[in-house]
Amino acid sequence: MPFLDTPIDGLKIFEPTVWEDGRGYFFEAYNQDAFAKAGIEAQFVQDNQARSVRGVLRGLHYQVGAHAQAKLVRVTEGEVFDVAVDIREGSPTYGEWFGITLSAANKRQLFVPRGFAHGYLVLSETAEFFYKCDNFYAKDKEGGIRFDDPGIGIDWNGFDLSSAILSEKDQVLPVLGHHRKD
Ligand SMILES: Cc1cn([C@H]2C[C@H](O)[C@@H](COP(=O)(O)OP(=O)(O)O[C@H]3O[C@@H](C)C(=O)[C@@H](O)[C@H]3O)O2)c(=O)[nH]c1=O
User: Fold this and answer.
1) Per the structure, how many domains does the chain have?
2) Is the link from the previous residue into 121 a cis peptide, with omega within 30 of 0?
3) Which CATH number do you get for residue 150?
4) Where in the sequence is the active site (predicted)?
5) Catalytic one among 62, 118, 131, 179?
6) Which domain holds residue 21?
7) Residue 57 pLDDT more than 80?
8) pLDDT, greater one: 63 or 178
9) Residue 85 in contact with residue 60, Cβ under 8 Å?
10) Per residue in 143-161, pLDDT tens?
11) What residues have CB less than 8 Å from 99, skipping those under 6 apart?
């Protein structure tokens, strides 16, 4: 199974092998053994699915301490720009971001290790976003960072962010310098 490294250690792109025939296509969306061989040992315990309309921006989210979550994210309908920010204390790439277009068409997945803040922007009319997590949702342990933190400087695929649609929670998130650590 093809895995690609990103400039941030541990953050990996997975491009599944797609088998096409007269019926349509088939691919393995996740194979624990293949992921382990690629160094991804996460034991996933929760699957989430979200539907959003164009311009919806969810993030940047994480859970603190022992509640941190690794995520394996993909799009099953439409297209998003997906972003992960390294917030691992002591990491040489602390505060750096990586973005990638994920779509139902390109079938790419991003593996986001624990210790990252994660978010995505919907580029298509609607999008279905699907992700596996290696730790359970813990409402009281959520943290967030502003999607437009100037110190991080994410380029959201050139999107006009004045028309971004955010949850009330995401409108009042702090910048990285003031983010929740425990
Ligand atoms: C994330 C989550 C939310 N919920 C509930 C809480 C709330 O009532 C409703 C919507 O939650 P939110 O507004 O936090 O959903 P959302 O903004 O989509 O949150 C997600 O954003 C992306 C970027 C991530 O990386 C995820 O980890 C998660 O934080 O769903 C669960 O029951 N379980 C969960 O795992």
Assistant:
1) 1
2) no
3) 2.60.120.10
4) 61, 131
5) 131
6) 3-178
7) yes
8) 63
9) yes
10) 999 999 999 999 999 999 9
11) 81, 82, 83, 154, 155, 156, 157
